[in-house]
Every structure is written in C-alpha cells, then in structure tokens.
Amino acid sequence: MHRRAIEIYPNPASFANLGTDYFYLGKDDDAIESYQAALRLDPLDDVLYRNLGDVYLRVGRSLEAKEQFMRASELLIERLKVNPNDARLLARFANCQAKLGKEQEALSGIERAVSAEPHNVDLLYQNAVIYALVGRPDEAMAQLRQAIATGYSRSEAQRDPDLNSLRPRLDYQSLFSDRD
What we know:
By secondary structure, the chain is mainly α. The chain has helices at residues 2-8, 12-25, 28-41, 46-58, 62-82, 87-99, 103-116, 121-133, 137-149, 154-159, 170-177. It has two domains: 1-82, Serine Threonine Protein Phosphatase 5, Tetratricopeptide repeat, CATH 1.25.40; 86-180, Tetratricopeptide repeat domain (Serine Threonine Protein Phosphatase 5, Tetratricopeptide repeat), CATH 1.25.40. It is globular. The chain starts with a helix and ends with a helix. The model has no long low-confidence stretch (mean pLDDT 94).
C-alpha cells in the first residue's frame, strides 16, 4: 500500500511509513533506503532522523546512528526554543538524548514532558522507554505497567525494540503473559 502511494505521489509520510514497515519486518536495508528517501523530501523532520538512527543501531552502524540522533536533537532544540513546554517535543528529545548516552538530559526531558501532560498515556509509555534506554529497569517496569494499565497498547509495547533490555525480566514476561 505504501509503495503504491509513493508511485502515485512520492511524499515523506509514505516513505516514512514504508520505512517503518520494513523496520518491523527486519528488512533493514530497505528501511534505511526508505527513511533516506523521506529525508531527501523533508530534511527537517526529527522523527525521520531518529528512525534512521534506530535502523543504523540495529545493523551495528553506531557512528551513523549517533549522527542521526544528534541531528534529530538539533532540530528539536530549535523547535523547543519556540515552545519549551511542548510535551511531545520534550519526549522526542529525551529519546534522542537517551540514545546518545546522555542520561540526565533524557530523564530531565521526559520528566518535564510528563509533568506538562500527566495523563497522556503516550508520554507515560515514553517515560518507560527512557528509563529502559538509560539502564534503569525497575523504574522502566513501573512506568510500563502504569502505561499499559492506563490504556497503552500491549502489542505496540511488546514489539518496541527500545524495550529489549527488559525482555529477559520475569516481571516483563509476566506483564505480557497476563491478559486480563
């Protein structure tokens, strides 16, 4: 469907969606190509840089991944100058900072995001992701349980590679085996 959309009208969203499809199918080279095509059409989209960085991480191209996370962070810093309390931007910035190994900046960013919108289930989930990425699994699990309890998609959480560090834990496995 996304390939057909690109044939009709090549646009960043269709290339990004195709890249995400390929990412979850494990077709990393195709994902990279799709995200790069999207970025050629929209070089100011921080999400595209972060997604490309995620694929590069998965294929062991850590220097290129770092470049993508840094570029996404630079774009987010500029956007946050306009609205420093935009919770969505703060969460995206926190994710990039975590992937760059900047624990304090990541935690500060996600805490500000959740404080701005404490009932936003997506931000509650991103809080879990940030804790997982910075190596704080107990806090990550507490936040993940809260996000799922308040309506975050179990299937989305279960397939998120940012939570890979939690998968061996019994409490993680229990969370996804219990279907109430």
